[in-house]
Structure formats: C-alpha cells, structure tokens
Amino acid sequence: MQENILGKKLLIVVAHPDDESFLAAGTLHLNHREKGTNYLLCASKGELGVYHLKARVSETKIKTIRKGELMRVAKYLKVHTLKILNLPDGALHRHKHAFEKEVKKFILRCKPYYIVGFGENGYTCHKDHIAAGEVSRKLGRVCHIPFVEFVRPPRAACGNLDKYLVGKRQTGNYRDKNTNTVKPNIKIKINPVIKLKALSMHKSQFAGLNPYKTFPQKVADHILANEYFRVSKF
C-alpha cells in the first residue's frame, strides 16, 4: 500500500449524499491538510432516503434536507467545489449518458490528478453505485486520469462485511451478489472523530449510517479509523 493520493487534486464521484462520508470523509479531510484540493460530485439528492425519517415528507422536502446536509458536510470536510446533480435516486443506471456528460464537464473544469469512485461491486452492490462507478472508470480511461476505487477493509481486519451490509438494504436497488472482491493497495489512517462527525451531519440518515448500529464495535472502530482504496492507472 505505497501510493500516496494525499496532497493532490481529488475528484470524488458518488451517487447519493452520505456516500462521501461513509467511504472517504477522513481522506477528504486529510487531503486538505496535506495541501490537496477536494472536488465532490454527487449524482442525486437522495430522495429515496426516507426510511429513517420519523415523519413522512414530500420528495421535494427530502431533496432539500439531504442537499443541505451534504452542503454542510462538504464545508466541514473542506471540499473546494461541490456539484450536486438532480438525477433520480434509484435509477441512475437508466441515466448514465446524462451523468457521463455532467461528470466529464466537471473533470474538464477541475482537472483532477485522481478520480475517486465506486468499483464494479459498488461497495454495497447498490445499482446506483455500480452505475456511478462505470461512468467514473470510463472517463478515467478516456481522460487518462488514474482511478481510485473505494474498497472494503481486508477480511483479516473486519471479516466479511456482506452479512452486515445486507441488513442495511431498505429498497430493491441492489444486485443480489457481490460480483467482485478487490484487494486494496492504499490504506489511509484517519481521525475517527472527523469521520463520525461527518456521518452524524447527515442527520436524516444517521440512524442507518452510525457504524456502531450497523457493525460490531471492533469492526466499527476499524472502519472509523481506516479508509481503503485501490488505484488503477490507465
């Protein structure tokens, strides 16, 4: 795990508000401290994220709530430029062409050193994650920019996360199986306080994001203190 992605221009491409915090909050914070620049593009406003709300709200209202949460998190994590699209939550795979156009425009604008996003299994096998990853990896190849994939912790550290992640599924927007298991070649030690704070700022979703409610304490402690990636150069 030798490559250092910190202190560089990073473009993080995600599907929903909160993806960035669960997968890369500590890395974004450290990158800023190392004099790097963070850019964040989110495909949707997460309108399907109503499962943990105590009261029913309209689609317009939940979009407003989640957009506001992401804006506050981006400021906290020192994101230089945030772009939030309005593509449909749960159906990104049907809008990949529009998504690709927007991501390419953003790449040309910020000229990142790395594109950071989802691999073939979308980390959780969510179809939106998989579609976002397909677009990000394609544009990495086209633009000759190294792609950095979000990767699960090694099994030696956390075991098989599937049995915990499957329990988080509240809709049918998932592939049934983890189609690809990738070994990380980058491990970044992060501040768990920063990551937990970023997660908690997604207040509407925190009941499902809180690692201590999703994982055993040992696994939660590890996830909050470490982020894993795999870099591919085209």
Structural account:
The protein has 234 residues and is an alpha/beta fold. The protein is built from ten helices and seven strands. The chain has one domain: 3-Layer(aba) Sandwich (Rossmann fold). The protein is 43% helix and 16% strand. It has a seven-stranded mixed β-sheet, sandwiched between helices. Strand 2, helix 2 and strand 3 form a beta-alpha-beta unit. The longest helix is centred in the first third of the chain and has 18 residues.
What name goes with the CATH superfamily? LmbE-like
Unreliable spans are none
Query: Any idea how many domains?
Result: 1
The chain-level structural class is: alpha/beta
Instruction: Give the total of beta strands.
Output: 7
CATH architecture: 3-Layer(aba) Sandwich
What is the CATH class name? Answer: Alpha Beta
- Average the pLDDT over all residues and give the rounded result: 93
Number of helices: 10
Tags for this entry?
234 residues; 43% helix; seven-stranded mixed β-sheet; 16% strand; 7 strands; Rossmann fold; alpha/beta; 10 helices
